[in-house]
Amino acid sequence: MRLATVKVGGGGEIAAVVLEDGVASLGAINDLLNASWPTDLLSLLEEGRVGDLRSWLRGLGEVAREELADVVIPFDRVEYAPLYRRPRKIWGIGLNYVEHAGDLSETAPSEEPASFMRPDTTIIGPGEEILLPEQSERVTGEAELGLIIGREARNLSEKDAPSVVAGLTTILDMTAEDILRRNPRYLTRAKSFDTFFSFGPQLLTLDEAGEIPDLKVATVLNGEVQRVNAVSNMTFSPWSLVSFHSKVMTLLPGDIISTGTPGAVQIREGDVLSCRIDGFEPLSNPVSKG
Predict the structure, then answer these.
(1) How far apart, in whole angstroms, are the C-alpha atoms of residue 188 and residue 251?
(2) Where are the beta strands (DSSP E) in 118-271?
């Protein structure tokens, strides 16, 4: 199953199911089929109902499926928003591909992941502007695979980690690199400017995403692939990251773990930065001055 949040008339943002020919908002599905699904994606996650929705959709009869066609918004009319705007936590993972560590002249961690947290005020969605802050003269952007937590969990084993992940998504993570290079203690500030975290446009449940180690993550600038690598080449796998961080603090529905990038690229005014992952809808954002 694929989920999204889309913009509707009047500026509202509502959860939607991605179907073959477009998307159907959960509000429209509720009205059409006399259902009562939460109409924002974070609430769907917090109530632990993503799996229930997947099963319910699979169980719809032929007549109900035909009726859904009446409320589908064609893809060429869909305007995506971020999946949601107020997660409890956003974890970032630094230098999780050995090759990327060389970009910053640093040694990749080998015993524990190099993680950090960022505020939700950094969040933007597909097509929204990345704003270059006045305080920085060198901002870089990175494509990453994101993990979306689907239920509360603590002290997980790596084996059990997939059971708490509701799905995967595409992410663009920005860094004021010149600020970071001045002093590694400036990491939080370098990562926390408004518009420095874009995610969406779709959440793919694990069964939809395919073989996760085989996924290739690409940082793309102005249509050209700059860096690409496979998830299997991460130092710390997605499931090890979930397990590790569940032993630091309780993971909550809607928490995001951004798993690291194959490589960063400097972004400038007028650029378009994109994240491409096999089988996922691409995520792209234009770059402007703040």
Answers:
(1) 20
(2) 123-124, 130-132, 139-149, 165-176, 197-199, 202-204, 216-221, 224-230, 256-258, 264-267
Please determine, for residue 34, whether its predicted confidence score (pLDDT) is greater than 70. Answer: yes
Report phi then psi at 55, rounded to 5: -65, -40
End-to-end CA distance of the chain: 37
Task: Kindly report the average pLDDT of the chain as a whole number.
Answer: 94
pTM for the predicted model, two decimal places: 0.94
Q: How is domain 90-289 classified at the architecture level of CATH?
A: Alpha-Beta Complex (3.90)
Q: Where are the domains of the chain?
A: 2-77, 90-289
Is the pLDDT assigned to residue 205 strictly greater than 80? yes
Number of helical (H) and strand (E) elements in the chain, helices listed first: 9, 18
Q: What is the pLDDT of residue 64?
A: 85
Q: What φ, ψ does residue 98 adopt, rounded to 5°?
A: -55, -40
Q: Which residue type is seen at 28?
A: A
